[in-house]
Design a protein that fits this description.
Structural class: mainly alpha
Number of helices: 25
Distance between the termini: 27 Å
Largest sheet: none
Radius of gyration: 23 Å
Shape: globular
Order of helices and strands: HHHHHHHHHHHHHHHHHHHHHHHHH
Length: 501
């Protein structure tokens, strides 16, 4: 869930930036702002009118959407409308009671203690320099294939995702390494950018995943099993995008570099390959600790997180002993963990407040009754949700998508006998697609900021349009992944169904 931003470095080879926004852009911005303010004020007024509970709930949701579009922090966009709705429906005593008990009851849970452990582990490994090592190993082993550098970038992203749990962090780290390497080898800039973008997509599916932990809290399912449910889909995503890259390289003329670059990679000696693989030993160690421990029952999810965090401390001290940066990394990681965990817990409080408000208004049960009246099958409903999430993803980030839809959908999922564990992986992956889709496309914006650095773009202009085009190249394969998950849900549920405990 961690969002990493890159400092934009001016590129002398590009056209000079505009001094300021054009008048047309300014007028459009003020028009959008005015519409949002009207929606916000109108929804606030509507909440306190003598309306039916469902109408009050709808007004609260409009208020929440307006606050989201105005860039108010996500937790506050849930908390403010929810308590306003509770006050309008049940009065001051209900709000006072909720404010007194809800924050403690929602976050004082033993299962949520896994959150700081996984966050600390990811932040420490981020500072250990593991990215360079993983990318080198992937390049040595896979560089001979059609599109080998792009395939290596994708596999390295899956490995980094398995120990960091950060989509944007993975893409940011690989972008600074992989994009210039692929451009040097003659790759089309769109394939180079696209390979980096999709390399980060398993980041919130393969444990540790903060979004899956948050989903477990919202849906009230076991955290450990929710994390295990993401492993199969995460591996599937990586495999399918690897296939897509190979197909681009085979059938796309001059997309994947020169034949000479593949021949050069094929002549890497086996000793060099095995040395590069051995240097990436923290990845398999942590995978065994996290996944093996939870699946076998040796560790609970919380205990696996604690042991993995302890291992990451040791890894940082081993890797940073030469430059003496271990203590600095430990301090930075600890401070970042406190900040991130505080934000996560505030989000959980907001989610619970929103859930209570929608339950009291009857929106959740009303939506379930509507779906029941449509007489949709499981597959039909999920295909409908695929379209809905693709539309929402064009305007919203993953967290708002989850908190807006999951509390409403849970009664419907139970009625259609859809596994809540499976739906967690489905929702998180659809949220991952949201950070690629224009016009929001947070991950696309991050990659675009990286490509402005002359050391990354090697003097080639890579506009935002190319970044979005690169994302769209891989969108059909992403939809294929979702369809496979819909028709073969066992890919997600196999491990949690067989896990101990």
């Amino acid at each position: 869930m961690t969002t990493t931003t890159a400092a934009e470095t001016p590129n002398p080879g590009m056209a000079p930036p505009e001094v300021g926004p054009s008048r047309k852009t300014t007028v459009r911005s003020w028009t959008v702002f005015a519409i949002l303010m009207v929606a916000l004020v109108g929804s606030v007024v509507a909440i306190f009118l003598p309306l039916t509970p469902i109408a009050i709930g709808c007004a609260a949701l409009v208020m929440m959407m307006a606050l989201l579009c105005l860039r108010v922090p996500v937790a506050l966009t849930m908390i403010i409308p929810s308590f306003a709705g509770l006050y309008a429906i049940r009065g001051e005593k209900t709000v006072t009671s909720a404010l007194t008990a809800l924050p403690y009851d929602q976050v004082a849970s033993w299962t949520l203690s896994v959150v700081p452990m996984f966050v600390l582990m990811g932040l420490l490994l981020w500072r250990s320099g593991l990215t360079d090592t993983l990318y080198t190993a992937a390049r040595h082993w896979l560089g001979w294939m059609p599109g080998g550098l792009a395939v290596g970038t994708n596999i390295a992203g899956s490995g980094l995702a398995a120990v960091s749990g950060s989509t944007t962090g993975t893409a940011y780290a690989l972008g600074r390494i992989g994009i210039p390497e692929m451009l040097k080898a003659g790759y089309d800039r769109r394939l180079a950018v696209g390979a980096v973008i999709v390399a980060g997509l398993p980041g919130q599916l393969i444990p540790p995943s903060i979004l899956l932990v948050l989903y477990a809290g919202i849906a009230e399912v076991p955290v450990g099993k929710a994390l295990l449910a993401g492993i199969g889909p995460g591996i599937l995503v990586s495999v399918m995008f690897t296939i897509a890259i190979i197909l681009f390289a085979v059938f796309g003329k001059d997309l994947a570099g020169t034949k000479e670059s593949r021949v050069e990679a094929a002549h890497v000696s086996w000793s060099v390959r095995f040395k590069s693989l051995a240097a990436a030993w923290p990845v398999p160690v942590l995978i065994v600790v996290i996944i093996g421990g939870m699946f076998s029952g040796v560790f609970t999810a919380t205990e696996a997180g604690a042991v993995a965090a302890l291992c990451s401390v040791g890894i940082v001290f081993l890797w940073k002993r030469k430059d003496g940066g271990a203590w600095r990394a430990l301090v930075d990681g600890s401070v970042g963990t406190v900040s991130t965990v505080g934000a996560v817990f505030l989000l959980l409080i907001g989610v619970e407040a929103l859930s209570r408000m929608m339950t009291l208004t009857g929106i959740s049960n009303g939506f379930a009754d509507l779906i029941a009246s449509m007489d949709l099958s499981r597959v039909e409903f999920l295909l409908l949700m695929l379209v809905v999430y693709l539309i929402l993803g064009a305007f919203m980030e993953p967290l708002p998508m989850m908190v807006l839809t999951i509390p409403i959908l849970i009664p419907t999922l139970e009625a259609l006998d859809i596994s809540l564990l499976w739906f967690g992986a489905f929702t998180v992956f659809m949220g991952e697609l949201a950070i690629l889709s224009p016009p929001v496309g947070i991950l696309a914006m991050v990659i675009h900021s990286i490509t402005k650095d002359p050391e990354v773009n090697l003097g080639k202009n890579i506009p935002l349009k190319d970044v979005f085009v690169a994302s769209l190249w891989f969108l059909p394969m992403a939809i294929v992944v979702v369809l496979i998950l819909i028709f073969f849900p066992e890919i997600s549920t196999f491990l949690p169904d067989r896990a101990s405990g």
